[in-house]
Design goal:
Layout (H helix, E strand, L loop, with lengths): L1 H12 L4 H39 L6 H29 L3 H16 L10
Helix pairs in contact: 2-4
């Protein structure tokens, strides 16, 4: 919120030039991204936890099916990671840091990535 106050003070003084507006926007956009990210992170974490538990803890599935599901989740995760890395390279935003936060949280809540052993 400090940036918002700074921007308001600057606008109260005088009408900012296009260069000043561009500079303020350049400073403001990353802060907005961070705020939006933190709000969305909770929803992403919840969704991933529910999906992983449903897919990997299905008591009606065989060990082979659970292993295939785990492998498919890993492939999907790698695809998301690759897409995130491409965005980081283009924008300079540290998405990897945020992805690591989610993966850490999901890993803690979802348990080990290995499918559960057959109880039979």
């Amino acid at each position: 919120m400090d940036l918002q106050k700074t921007m308001e003070k600057e606008f109260e003084k005088k009408e900012p030039t296009p260069e000043e507006q561009a500079k303020l926007q350049k400073e403001f956009v990353p802060m907005m991204f961070e705020a939006i990210w933190h709000a969305q992170r909770i929803d992403i974490h919840r969704t991933l936890t529910i999906v992983c538990k449903a897919v990997l803890k299905d008591v009606g599935a065989t060990k082979d099916v659970l292993a295939k599901r785990a492998a498919a989740l890993k492939i999907m995760g790698q695809a998301f990671e690759a897409a995130g890395n491409a965005v980081v390279q283009e924008s300079g935003v540290d998405i990897q840091k945020h992805v690591n936060e989610i993966l850490k949280d999901v890993g803690q809540d979802a348990g080990p990535s290995d499918p559960p052993a057959d109880s039979a």
